[in-house]
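REQUEST ID: PR-0412
SUBMITTED BY: lab tech R.K.
PRIORITY: routine
TASK: structure prediction, single protein chain
INPUT:
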Amino acid sequence: MTDIMSETEPTAVETEKGPTRSGFVALIGATNAGKSTLVNKLVGAKVSIVSHKVQTTRAIVRGIAIHKNAQIVFMDTPGIFKPRRRLDRAMVTTAWGGAKDADAIMMLIDSERGLKGDAETILNGLKEVEQPKMLVLNKIDQVSREELLKLATAANEYVDFERTFMISALNGSGCDDVLDYLAMKLPEGPWYYPEDQISDLPMRQLAAEITREKLFLRLHQELPYSSHVETEKWEERKDGSVRIEQVIYVERDSQKKIALGKNGDAIKAISMASRKELSEILEQPVHLFLFVKVRENWGDDPERFREMGLEFPK
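STATUS: complete
OUTPUT:
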């Protein structure tokens, strides 16, 4: 079994547990395989938004976990699927780019879906990737042991995975095994981030992502996933609270009506849920003001892609 190594190996810091280790681990998989849920579970805090809507994650979100003497930077990539629009192409390109930039790759498969749909396409794509690869079968509590073993065997016939893990990202079963393995296999070197940092996402962007999550949770059957949230103002106030103004961008007036809801019920509920979670994260009172604006064809605007951390595809 090949150890996970990076191109450069800076000098590690010696600790009571031995030399420090660090590295980047990319999670890739089909949409709704559970990547964001798994990153949040491994990090031990919410760093990536989760919803029932497909393709919720758009750009790479890095969640930072400390386990034993290792700092493991998990890269939650957008789900890989057959792209139809410019935004889709940007997301898929970002996912594969994140995988190729990492020290190691974890391929996550929904055990209930198996190799149906995009999973097989991703496995074929992984054959061209040189980084060490691990297979993670998620939602194992929904599938029999026999079916899990068949799925693991079938996936390993596509790619020579170094290790296969069987986990439940929702309840954490098997997640410690993943952390133990990575803490042992990542290259020796100093940590990339301060010990108390759990994500590299700027707080303004994280706040926008949280509101987008609440938007999808409330309206996932009604509102297209192309809706976008931006934090436009962030004011730290003298009383210790923070005032945040965000804009929800939609593409048509009909979508604006859905986002607002009857008598403003939808936007009020979204604001309340987002404000509550932001107050818990920031550990200070939050005054959140949401506005809904129509911006036609924003999916063709390079500036919006930069705001999301995506490269604008031509």
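NOTES: The chain has nine helices and eleven strands.
REVIEWED BY: pending
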